[in-house]
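Forum > Structural Biology > Help requests

Title: Can anyone predict the 3D structure of histidine kinase?

Hi all, first post here. I have the sequence for histidine kinase but no way to get a structure on my laptop. I'd be grateful if someone could post the structure tokens.
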Amino acid sequence: MSPPDAADRALAVKKRHWRRKRSTLLGPWRKLTRWLARWMPKRLYARSLIIIIAPMVLLQSLIAFVFMERHWQTVTQRLSTAVVRDISGIIDLMDTFPQDSGYENLIRISRERLALNISILPPDPLPAPGPKPFYSILDNILSEEITKQINRPFWIDTIGDSDLVEIRIQLEDKVLRVFARRSQAYASNTLIFLVWMAGSALVLLAIAILFLRNQIKPIQQLATAADSFGKGRAPPPNFKPRGAEEVRRAGAAFIVMRERIERQIEQRTTMLSGVSHDLRTILTRFKLQLALVSNRVDTEAMEQDIDDMQSMLEGYLSFARGEADEETGVFNLERLFAKLKEEAILLKRGFTSTIRGQPEIHVRPNAFSRLITNLVSNSFRYAQNVFVAADHRDGWLILTIDDDGPGIPKEMRDEVFKPFFRLDQARNQDAGGTGLGLAIALDIARSHGGDITLEDSPKNGLRAIVKVPA
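Reply #1:
Sure, ran it for you. Structure tokens for histidine kinase below:
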């Protein structure tokens, strides 16, 4: 092996090693990002609130921790040290100047000068230690200071809502009991700080939510207007660009785009109407000419050709024109299914329909009637029995059409929706051979913001599923 090949091989080994190492390092991070993506809210308003709340909570937690660790504990440490130092001085005075008649002057000086209420008790055993709280900074610091400065048996009571802290020190022939105000040994303004911190956070959060709602609302209105336009519905009557400059620009661009599309649709409709009028005039002229010569030659084949041309022309124009200019309204499924039932009787076909939920939906009535009629008529043409089930709930209509016909191969189910597509014995061919039935149905479904899919039917035929917002 040549040296360059060996170098390339070593480089490839290093790259593979680096990829494995990078994959190992990034594995936990990718799992975390996937977990966050799964649990994060999907709406912009909720995500924006999290963006505001998360840093605020983190900052407030950091401030609270620094305060608890540095300020509250330090102040409590200093106050407790001062109280224990005063008690230690009283004990030194009692040991240095013993008085058989009592310690009235020392008691008075302690009360007046040191704000400590002391008393001398008989040398009885100290009370048993009481239950300690789960977290009491005063109890821990005060115990440490007494042990460090006095180093004698003691008992303290810091539990409860009392404003006093009781301390008992075991001396040689007596017990010194001291009552001190809790504020002398404890930083009691912590609750006020926490309340102010929480209150200010709530006020800031309320202000942020108020301003954020005003900024998010124009985006929501723009999304609603775009969704309505995509479904062929009229935009909200009060829609106009609002909010930040970027949102206003997006709203203005949407309005211009909508006007351009509506203008193009109007121009196309006008052009197709003119073409339709001119071609129908010519076809009518052909029919009149054939009627005049009908006594001299056999014109049956020519008349059939004209009828086929007129049928194909109507199909082409209907597909090109669409139903986009129709206004939305209330459409009753029960009435349409009743008409399809009558048609099935005339064609000697079986037809069964069920409706789950409200039978009335909000769509473009003529267009949606044509959608369902095209699909059901296609089934009538190639099957003996047709089963239609409508499920209307949660703002969606799911229409399932099953039949027991020959079906369509899986690899051709996307192709049959293409205009003018021909398939041998295809289910989407009209009588005139235009092949626009399924294409028109799909175009109507998508103009409503929905779609059509084809599957195998449990009735051994084809299943067509129409899903549209209604």
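Residues 30 and 36 are 10 Å apart (CA to CA). Residues 1-39 form one domain.
Shout if anything looks off.
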